[in-house]
């Protein structure tokens, strides 16, 4: 086929963008902008509606409840202003549970990040059946928290658990894993068991690191550890920052202590081992065991504010050590 045989509509180059084409037809600029705005809100409307109804609405309702004595059942309640907030600030149980949640976050988040990054480095290497290993290591992360709690509750049961079965084979007496002081370690093991979620995100970050930098480092005689510390980790710093923030938020809201408790009911929440009685357990007890909806809502709003402050501090403290390929504050 010669050039002359090609239809003119195909040979003629397309000129301009769809916007310029509309303008050439006499469509006003304001009409084009309005169409774009309508398309944007049309496609984002499901998320916007869900966010308003399922997030903003319940948060506003909880904020209103925090100023009342509502118990969830009785129609007789009163508006008490900031009394619930004053009470929680003077409640030693609140501060003790909050400190345990903070210690748990400071312990579990670094451990999960290190474990996930280590697994990502291993499965990023050219090993046999690499896809299978990635799948197997990621599978625990997709197990629902309730299922994971039941698994660990069964494994570490004092009378019939597999953990004590192994100890008995070695001639060691059974250990009450779900009681103090071992209960905290069971929670940490449950967190590390789900490190596949951190692994998959770190793996995506590792595959985005330019190979040319590693090759240049090897040519310069840098060791594998020096290359990892000086090249890989700085380029992964935005991923690690994301994992630190999301991990902190998830860890202070964990309900795993309740799931592995001997009696995971509203009446049994107060029997949770002291080391596992963290902030969300206190909230659960106030909501469902004691029926203090107003006070529990105040606890949740205080936690929300503390998470905002902690997130801001993390971003502030890491602003000089997080490397972005593109400046996140650059104006477009």
Q: Oligomeric status of the shown chains?
A: single chain
What's the Cα radius of gyration? 27 Å
Q: Tell how many strands the DSSP assignment holds.
A: 0
Poorly predicted tracts of residues: 9-16
The helix/strand order is: HHHHHHHHHHHHHHH
Question: Biggest sheet, open or closed, and with what strands and sense?
Answer: none
* SS field, number of helical segments: 15
Coarse shape? globular
The portion of residues assigned to helices is 55-70%
Q: What is the end-to-end distance?
A: 46 Å
Estimate what percentage of residues fall within beta strands: under 5%
Supply the helix-strand structural class. mainly alpha
* Overall residue-averaged pLDDT value: 84
Please name the defining characteristics of this protein.
single chain, 332 residues, mainly alpha
Notes on the protein architecture:
- The protein is an all-alpha fold.
- The chain has 15 helices and no strands.
- The protein is 65% helix and 0% strand.
- Helix 5 crosses helix 10 and helix 14 packs antiparallel against helix 15 (293-317).
- The radius of gyration is 27 Å and the shape is globular.
- The protein starts with 7 loop residues before the first helix and ends in a 15-residue tail after the last helix.
Topology:
Blueprint: H1 8-11, H2 18-24, H3 29-65, H4 83-89, H5 92-123, H6 130-138, H7 145-155, H8 162-169, H9 183-193, H10 196-206, H11 211-219, H12 224-252, H13 256-259, H14 279-289, H15 293-317
Give a quick summary of the entry.
The protein is an all-alpha fold.
